[in-house]
Amino acid sequence: MVGTTLPFWLRPPGFSFRWLGAIEFLCATVLFHAGFSFLQARFEGSSTPRWPESRFLRYAAISIGFACILGLHINSDLRLNKFVYDGIFIVYSITAIFVGMLYTVPPFTFHQRIGGEVVLSVGLGMIPVLGAYLVQVGDLTRKVYLASLPILVATGLWVWIDELVSRNDDEKAWRRTMVIEFGPRFSGRFVVLALAFLFYATLFLAIISESIASLALTALFLTGLMWKIVAVSWKEHSCLERMLAVRKQAAWFHLAACSIIAASSLVIWIL
Prior knowledge:
Number of strands: 0
Strand content: under 5%
Shape: flat
Number of helices: 11
Structural class: mainly alpha
Largest sheet: none
Distance between the termini: 19 Å
Number of domains: 2
């Protein structure tokens, strides 16, 4: 949503909205996510008689393969700005694939290692914003990266809360996430608080740099929801039932923040 609507705010020269490109990129993104999810399930040993390893691999290959085909079609129809590298979308696609492999495929398997939270936040938070904008405009600028930072942090908060919830299961599976390394007390209190402050810091930075519309300040109305996330994580980070509710709140916060930033670009364009 954010990357697709951002051009309406930044208004690059010669911009005209590309419906087909937006739909193709959305489908490719969903297929990539599904494909690497199948790969992660395969390498985590989630196979069953009904879902053997070969089935996970087959579905992963089909999903990622179709995503690559869509990517090639997008690239063939891409209208690049002057002085932009001709293969920029190919480089972007290779980067997206590499990030997915970093998180799921041995010997990297960052979903089991320290730093996996960063890889996942970049893969689900920043990369889709950059790609959606690139498809529409044919260029990537500093403002696009700045505009993606609040989404990156909101994704990181969601991922972090999810790891707080699954901490015991992760320990049993011998995963070494940052939540486990830092401990539940530090992770539930200070890291969640730091991510909350970082979200608003990146939001203000994006607005001050005119990377996103000032109307995105309406995201301040989400402060009450953010306060609940921080307060419960601070006091009851060890209570699974309470943290399950916080995980839902983090997901809703992520969706609401994305929607507000995307809508702010459209509203300014309409006005």
